[in-house]
Amino acid sequence: MSNSKMKYDLPIPEDLISDHILPRLPVRSLIRFKSVCKSWLRVISSPSFVKSHLLQSLSSRTCFFVRGLPISKDIPIRTAPTYCYLYYSKNNENKLVPLDVQREFQLDLEYGRKSVVGSCNGLICFYGDGGTSVKGKFILWNPATKSSRFIETPCVEHIAKYGFGYASDIDDYLIFASFQSVYMKPIESQIQAWVFKVSGGEWNPVNDLPTDIGFYPTGVTNAIYSGDHLYWIDGDWKDSRLLSFCLSDYKFKDVKFPVGNHLRFKLHVSEGSLTLLSDSDRSPSKDLWRLVQHPSVECNSWVCIMTITRLFPRILAFSPTGKCLVQDYEETLKVLDYVSAEHRQVEGVYFDDYPIHAESHIESLVSPFDRLNV
Prior knowledge:
Largest sheet: 5 strands, mixed
Oligomer: single chain
Organism: Spinacia oleracea
CATH topology: Neuraminidase
Number of helices: 5
CATH architecture: 6 Propeller
Strand order of the largest sheet: 11-10-9-8-12
Domain F-box associated beta-propeller type: 115-333
Order of helices and strands: HHHHHEEEEEEEEEEEEEEEEEEEEEEEEE
Number of strands: 25
Low-confidence stretches: none
Shape: globular
InterPro entries: F-box-assoc_dom_typ1 (IPR006527), F-box-assoc_interact_dom (IPR017451), F-box-like_dom_sf (IPR036047), F-box_dom (IPR001810), Gal_Oxase/kelch_b-propeller (IPR011043), SCF_F-box_component (IPR050796)
Protein name: F-box/kelch-repeat protein At3g23880-like
CATH superfamily: Kelch-type beta propeller
Domain F-box: 19-50
Distance between the termini: 44 Å
CATH class: Mainly Beta
């Protein structure tokens, strides 16, 4: 046998396949490859592989998850989906992919009024309002694996705030929810807060709530997740505050706003850090601030990373790679590189007269049940 033929007959080492080849593949391919052999099934189903694939996805397979009513030449208005992926990778630049959540993904969201709570590491969290005297439901959904989980709320009181994120210290995903009675005046209403651990499968009460936590009067709002913390803008525009909740120790903390005459704030996450868009009627521009963490000291600081004019398109979401999804005044979506000011329009797609919610999203193998259920 010739040396050239022997080279082709040499098998690929198993560790090369499991550590370097399989983690680079999309989820759909990995699900199929579970049937190739028992060793591949064992590797792809292991928690360590899910983590290595997740790390690879964070740098190469990011997209935007958009809720709205897209209208384009390829998506007739009568059959337009409510949810879609917007890919902006080099191989699939600005490709809009509709998601039929009821048929293709076997997910029933017809449970009252639905809201997007957040997206974290491939899991999307929804909340379905059950109405008066009926418990609501949270829904954890992985669109890539088509797996979903319904989680009933611990009480029937009116939900005030919620959030979804990952706690690295305990290696678990958590849902935060606070409730208050709608039949009492805000000053008399007793607030409850609970945390649901995905791996544990049960709600646990949050004790020692601050007496001035003030989950009203802003209504139901979802948190922004960043670095093991959930963040809310609490209070009205005249007397607002930035509140954080640590998913590791269940502690609340006030975070100071940037110095200046700011009247309105909008929270985002860009490049893994909490980002704040501030606005004032007295200024012709808006400032984009990033929260800088200082592990050695208790307080953090804000750094202004960009100043934009009022004519700048509405910012919907940021990606981990520095891209920004915006909506211009013609209701058209654009993917913007805010560092170089270059942008690419999502050709032929707009969201006319419909509220739009967008989240940075990745495709992963993370299970909505627990770390061992892939």
